[in-house]
Amino acid sequence: MSPSVSTKGLLNLIVVYLVWGSTYLFIRLTVQEGSGFPPFAMAAGRTLCASAILFGLAILLGHRLRLMGPDLRVLLLSGVLLWVGGNGLVVWAERHADSGYAALVIGTTPMWPVIMESLLEHKPPSLLLALSLLVGFSGLAVLVTPVIIQGLGLDVSSTAALLAAAMAWSGGSLLMQRRPPQTTTILISAYQHLFGGLGLGGIMLITGEPWPQPTITAWLGWAYLVTFGSLISFTSFLVAVRTLPISLVMTYAYINPVIAVLLGWLVLGERITSTTVIGTALIFIGVSGVFWKRFTNNSG
Fold first, then answer.
1. Is residue 114 part of a domain?
2. Is residue 1 part of a domain?
3. Which end of the chain is more exposed for a tag (fewer CB within 10 A), N or C?
4. For residue 94, which of 28, 162, 161 has the smallest C-alpha distance?
């Protein structure tokens, strides 16, 4: 393995692979109709609770909480992109969208940083990357075309929100890699959860969401999202972003949809159609091309 590919980063990426695939199911359980949890209220509560725990842990470990202005600005912007734009839109979409479908649309996430980097560097992607993007987005088209043809407003808006979430999450991740804050991973996660939670709370107030009255199932899902989705896997994600190439990190979306689709089918009885299989295969081929190109660039 090339020295440029961190073993620590890869181990943390495996945690992201396994845990985040399950969060789509728990988000769906938490905000589906009848759960009693409005989407932005649930997401705000989750992120602010995780932020408080992370700050408490940082204090116990003796970390210096005060950060320089440039680092705070990066954490503010990335926190909003990751938690408000990325996670918040996924939560909102999963009020109506199946958990497996949401994961598959978000599965295009690894392709967006390639486009963003090409635009930032004024450099077109290689032939392999261009073909990988073409195949991947073809798979996305296969998935979303039936939704558009059906013309159901809620489904179309959910799909648009999921696409926007994938782009926002990619933007926040790319910002973190290009301008990494000079502080500990725990504090980075704490501040991003704080800024994201405040943003989500603001949206909750602006949209006039009702006061949450969660069911037991919704509370259990919320607790899982705080513990595993935020405290454990998000911190692992930050370690991976800081130690691995961004296109390699984004391949978590290569594994997450498989876990999410299987869990949605097993637990919620979500359908797996021929369109799902074909679209998924094409997205995976596209993501594989992104993974292969970046990995070969960092080996040998």
1. yes
2. no
3. C
4. 28
Which amino acid is located at 130 in the chain? A
> Could you identify the residue written with the tokens 């949809």?
257
Query: Which pLDDT band, with edges at 50, 70 and 90, does 300 fall under?
Result: very low
pLDDT in tens, 228-286: 988 888 888 888 888 887 767 767 767 788 888 888 999 988 888 888 889 888 888 88
Over the chain, what is the mean pLDDT? 86
Read off the pLDDT of residues 147-157 as tens digits, 9 standing for 90 and up: 777 765 557 88
pTM over 0.85: no
Identify the weakest region by mean pLDDT among 17-31, 108-122, 257-271. Answer: 108-122
**C-alpha 163 chain-centroid distance:** 11
Q: Which domain holds residue 67?
A: 7-297
Domain count within the chain = 1
Residue 74 inside a domain? The answer is yes
- Distance between CA 114 and CA 132 in Å, rounded? 10
Non-local (6+) Cβ contacts of 30 within 8 A are 37, 42, 91, 214, 218, 221, 222, 225
